[in-house]
Amino acid sequence: MRLRKKWFIPLGIIALSSWFLYRENNQIDTTAVTVQSDKLPAAFNDYTILQIADLHGKSFGSRQKVLLKKVNKLKPDLILMTGDLIDSRRNGEEEALLLMKQLTPDYPVYFVTGNHEVRLNLTILPKLERLGVTVLRNTSVPLERSGQFIELLGIDDPTTTRWSEGLQEPDGIRKSLDQAQSTADTRAFQLLMAHRPEYLPLYAERKVDLVLSGHAHGGQIRLPFTDGMYAPGQGFFPELTAGQHVMENTRLIISRGLGNSLFPFRIFNHPELIVVTLRT
Predict the structure, then answer these.
(1) How far apart are CA 23 and CA 268, in angstroms?
(2) What is the pTM for the complete model shown?
(3) Lowest-pLDDT range of 2-11, 49-58, 136-145, 188-197
């Protein structure tokens, strides 16, 4: 009897800890955000955008069924994927492509690179394009609805220009923004997909209306009164890890993302999908 009691408590602690960690890393939160702008044309009122960020090759259920059920329940007009679909440490390409294969028949899907696609030499990009994903690399495309338009811009993660052209990251971001905005109608509402949130001052400098980013994983561990313990590019106790941030006339929305990379667990920081509803 004493032996049973001796083992009961530690086994209970292990079971509860395992359940807690599983729940923290697999329960997908859906965050609804409304963005109002006088620059939006009337046709885009109630237009819904689903942001998927930082999957890192993670699978949610067999054949991504859990994640797909969430997406299909939301029925967005558009899906934007803001980088790190795969992970350079464990790849996860099969799980990522399986998700894309099931999304593209029903939704327009756009993608920009994250640092992990760059580390794997961008080999996934032609595979995404073959599945019907539109990859935006320092360019823009008009989004049309009932004869009215907004501009969707997408830029490469700055590691692309840093490695290939020897530029520092801020210079790489500026060059990418130059290229993307050169093809956009500057009078239109500009929606930018950019993997990294820490360059908000540069996005505001270019007068982008709305930016969707990820990369920070919500700070990974979100203790009370913090925005997370650590984020790449920002260090410890970062400021730009989740939620909405406004600088001048630019609104930045940061997804906590879905997967993990170097650190394998999220704590008080569930995986997240963001649904943005545009309002005129």
Answers:
(1) 10
(2) 0.93
(3) 2-11
